[in-house]
Amino acid sequence: MTELVIAAALWIATHLGISSTGLRAWLTSRLGEGAYLGAYSLLAVATLTFLILAWADAPRNIWLWYPAPWQTWFSLLLMPVAFVLLVTGLLGPNPTSVGQEGRLADPETVRGVLRITRHPVQWAFLIWALAHVAPNGDLATLIFLGAIALVAGGGTLLIDRKKARQAGEAWPAFAAATSNLPFAAIAAGRNRFAAAELGVGKVLLGLALYAVVVASHRWVAGVPISI
User: Fold this and answer.
1) Burial of 173 (0-12, 13-18, 19+ CB in 10 A)
2) Are the C-beta atoms of 15 and 122 separated by less than 8 Å?
3) Torsion angle in degrees (nearest 10) through CA of 121, 80, 57, 9
4) Are the C-beta atoms of 184 and 115 separated by less than 8 Å?
5) Phi-psi region of 213 (alpha: psi -120 to 50; beta: other; left: phi over 0)
6) How many helices (H) and strands (E) does the chain have?
7) What's the pTM value of the predicted model, to 2 decimals?
8) Cα–Cα distance between 5 and 186 in angstroms, integer?
9) Which of 70, 141, 103, 112 lies closest to 202, judged by CA?
10) Contact 60, 138 (CB under 8 A)
């Protein structure tokens, strides 16, 4: 369990302590943007791999609650949303992504999934983590899920802060037309839901990936789905 705690701490520190803080600017000024992004990508993969392996090796003998089969439905119902957010977020333009800051000045940028949330990929991972809490009551898995959720959720706040500082006058208009919390801008009347803009192909791809993961869950995650 100690190894898992260390892995979780490293995962959190490398993401929340580097990528959206002043340390990133310091490293970039010395390494260059390209070298920094390459090194950081390797570090992110390494810490994620360490976290996954540490979770896989951690004992499952400390239970905060014993999951019931019906709790699996939390995951089954929420994960399609996560996959659709992931695919539409990765395949669509987003001014909050690295290298796309110039899109802030384009009024047509706020389309598709950005009407729902300006951080679709981060919310996909946050929903994934939260959706798996109820069906998993062991401490090791909760530490693992908590680390993922903290980085995903905390990352949205740090990205907003960084972009507001970097983009200057271009940020307030984009932030006003979008929201961090999914559907908050739509509920507040600052935007509208346009399902067609998500793209049928992207939505179907997200649902297809969800179906593949459900079918292969026993082999991918090492845990069968029980309902």
Assistant:
1) middle
2) no
3) 30
4) no
5) alpha
6) 11, 0
7) 0.90
8) 39
9) 112
10) yes
Question: Cα(88)–Cα(159) distance, rounded to whole angstroms?
Answer: 19
Instruction: Answer for the pair 211, 225: CB distance below 8 angstroms, yes or no.
Output: no
Question: Which amino acid is residue 38, in one-letter code?
Answer: G
Burial class (CB in 10 A: 0-12, 13-18, 19+), 168: exposed
Q: In 3D, which of 211, 216, 212, 202 has the Cα closest to residue 84? A: 202
Q: Summarize pLDDT for 53-104 with one digit per residue, the tens.
A: 999 999 988 999 998 888 889 899 999 999 999 999 999 999 988 777 768 7
Find where tokens 């994960």 sit: 79
**Taking the CA atoms of the chain, what radius of gyration do you get in angstroms?**
19
- Provide CB contacts within 8 A for 103, sequence distance 6+: 93, 94, 95, 109
d(CA 121, CA 89): 5
- Which single residue is written with the structure tokens 């705690």? 5
